Amino acid sequence: MNDTEQLLADVEKLAHGGPRWAAYPLPAPLTTEGVERAEAALGFPLPPLLTALYTRTANGGFGPAYGFLPLIGDRAPDGEESAVAQYLALRQGVAEGEWPWPEGVLPICSLGCGMYSCVDCRDEHTTVLLFEPNAGEPERAWYVDKTGLAPWLRDWLDGTAWHCEESEDEEADMEPWPDFHARV
């Protein structure tokens, strides 16, 4: 089993075990056709690891904090729209004078208080960004959480991510995302 397969197996094990999922059963994984519909609506391909999470584990509901957003389809149990619906609405908001949302940056996980973990789908390393709008200015709302989706998932799995209850690093010192202005 290679590193990616092991990572996916570990995510599936945690996602389908534990008390949280008894109260909120996970939705079924997406089909390949579901991912293709999402990519067509977004206008860009999803990174392979993100695709594998949605097609092997579930269409959202697992992960840190409030969990992964559904990629497409029904709302999450907490009422959050799907990642595709949110991305399209946020990109449309740019045209309507709202805060600019970067092209190709997909919100994947709700962290509460308006914060989201997002994957830069245009970056070959699948950088995970923190969107933290509470600073009050769009330029100051974007931070590099992890330089890849795989390390971000590993930190969640082992409880060392800043957003994990078990973590002692509640005040993570993240660098601002340098590509913000080039992508809006």
Task: Lay out the secondary structure.
Blueprint: H1 3-16, H2 20-23, H3 32-42, H4 48-57, H5 83-95, E1 105-112, E2 115-120, E3 128-131, E4 142-146, H6 149-158, E5 175-176, H7 180-183
Antiparallel strand pairs: 1-2, 2-3, 3-4, 4-5
Helix pairs in contact: 1-4, 1-6
* Low-confidence runs of at least 5 consecutive residues: none
Please tell me the overall pLDDT. 89
Helix fraction, binned, reads 25-40%
Rg over alpha carbons: 16 Å
In terms of DSSP E residues, the strand content is: 5-15%
| Biggest β-sheet strands, sense, barrel | 5 strands, antiparallel
Category from helices, strands and their pairing: alpha+beta
What is the count of β-strands? 5
Helical stretch count?
7
- Overall form: globular
Helix-strand sequence: HHHHHEEEEHEH
Termini Cα gap: 40 Å
Strand order of the largest sheet: 1-2-3-4-5
Walk me through this protein's architecture.
- There is one protein chain.
- With 184 residues, the protein is of the alpha+beta class.
- 36% of the residues lie in helices and 14% in strands.
- It has seven helices and five strands.
- It has a five-stranded antiparallel β-sheet with strand order 1-2-3-4-5.
- Strand 2 and strand 3 form a beta hairpin.
- It is globular.
- The model has no long low-confidence stretch (mean pLDDT 89).
For the structure shown, list the relevant keywords.
single chain, about 180 residues, alpha+beta, five-stranded antiparallel beta sheet, 7 helices
